[in-house]
Structures are given as structure tokens and as C-alpha cells.
Design a protein that fits this description.
- By secondary structure, the chain is mainly α.
- It has two domains: 14-175, UbiA prenyltransferase (Tetracycline Repressor, domain 2, Orthogonal Bundle), CATH 1.10.357; 176-310.
- The chain is 77% helix and 1% strand.
- It is built from 17 helices and two strands.
- The chain has helices at residues 3-9, 21-27, 30-46, 53-77, 79-82, 100-122, 124-145, 152-156, 158-161, 163-172, 177-200, 202-208, 213-216, 219-236, 239-242, 248-270, 274-309; strands spanning 15-16, 19-20.
- A hairpin with a 2-residue loop joins strand 1 (15-16) and strand 2 (19-20).
- The longest helix has 36 residues, at 274-309.
- It is flat, with a radius of gyration of 20 Å.
Amino acid sequence: MTDATVISARPEPIEVLGGSVGDYWALLKPRVMSLVIFTALVGMVAAPGSIHPALALIGLLCIAIGAGASGALNMWYDADIDKLMARTAGRPIPRGQVTPDEALTFGTILSVFSVLTLGLVVNWTAAAILAFTIGFYVFVYTMWLKRSTPQNIVIGGAAGAFPPMLGWATVTGNVGIESVVLFLLIFLWTPPHFWALALYRARDYERAGIPMLPVVAGPDETRRQILLYSVALAVAAVAPYAVGIGGLSYLVISSLLSAAFLALAVRVYRVREGREADAVAKRLFLFSIFYLFALFAVLLVEHIVARVLA
């Protein structure tokens, strides 16, 4: 069978409104959504008390849908700059697969649905936090901070730090200091994570007119800020152990991972010229994703094991 035959034999994409199912799935930013679901799950498992598995599943689905809705609304508003950046030019709206109006409608419906369902089925505290998170990401970060200040990631990063708090509130109906610690961990992780990306994607952001730190303050200042935030992150990574939601294994693994994170941040700070500088920044960016997943995975495993042995 030839390649041409294989291509012609592929089924046509299912049309939903103006785009395919795959296009609307892409609007939800599934990679970001996976991190949201995972960290929210850890917040649920780490929370005291219990929740019916069906309610826990509904809660996770609502949090995931709310996160996806935020992504769709972000792509709606940023359609003009997404087409200018290599990293985002392949998104559904720049490719003409989904119109901005369709993305706006899709994101709005999902936002309302996720918040109302979470409130009516689980509890209104979690629903209020979800509504605030969506609003903060769309109105504060996307519409205001992203195009106006190099601190966009620092302040706007709070939106991505809420999922563990959402998971906690889904179970308990309140916000405890432990969930604030998990929030702080993601909040301090966000700047070095995104600034590492911005270092080797600086031309993209400059072309789109986005005042990311490397564009406004230069790469050297960005490297310094990455190092400073990495130190603060290493300290915050110990906090779950200090407040009792992380055990000894978490303390050991988080310390080792933080040491590796700091070593990469130091490397980024020192290597400033040529392709090697971009390569090191990309290495930190990729490791930062593994770092956060690994920290929350250890917390998840510890709590699951503790419940099994209880």
C-alpha cells in the first residue's frame, strides 16, 4: 500500500462548529491541563478527611474543564500574537481551523459549566476558587499583564498555582495552610520555568511585542532572576515536609531534585553565549517540567501508601 493510499484512506475529521474535534481539543491546551489535573489530584489526596470517589471524579473533571476553558479563552484573546510566534503559530485559530468567535463561545460555555457543576455537585468554596482562577488567568494575566509588564509570569503565574488548592477545597470545603504551601511551590516554580523558555524563544516574544523579561531587561538579568527564583524554589520545596504533608522520602527526593535544579540554574547563569546558552536554557525548561511532576508524584505516592497501610 502506498503512502498516497494511506493518506486517502484516512477518515475525514468530525466537524464540530467550525473545526474538528482535534482542533477544539487543542484549544483546551491538553498538556497544561494534564499538569492541572495531576496537581489537583495531589491536593485531593493530601487533604484530610474523605470524599466519595464519584464526587472526587466530578471535581477533577470540573477542574480540568475549567483549565481547558481558560486555555480556549487565552487563545481567543491572543489570536493576533499567536500567529506571529513559531511556538504558537500552529494553534487552531492562527491556522484558520477555528474562528476567534467560536473559541470565545466554546471557552465561555465550558467556564460556566465547570463552575456551576462544581458548586452544585461538590461545594461552592471549590467552585468560587475555580471561578477566580479562570477569571484571574483570562482577565488579569491574558488581557492585562501579559502585554504590559515583564512581571507577567510572576503575577500571572498564580493562576497556574491554584489547582492543588482546588483539589484540597473539593475535599474539605476550605483552604488550609498545607494547600497554600502547595500553591507557593508552583507559584515560585513558574518564573524560572517560563523564563528559561523565554531565553531561547526571545525573538518570538520580541516579534509579537510581548514584554517578557529577556526582551525588556535582557538575557543577563533574566538569568540572574532565574537563579534567584530557583533558590527560593529550593527552599519552598522543603515546606511540604515542614507542614506535615510530605514525609521523609519526599524530603530526600525533593532535596536531590532541587540540587539538580539549582545546578542547571547556575549553568544557565554562567553560559551566556552561542548555541550552548540556548541549549542550557532549554535543558532547564525541560527539567523544570519533570521536577514539578516528580515532587507532586512523591507526595501522591506517600499519601496513597499511608492510606493503604492505615
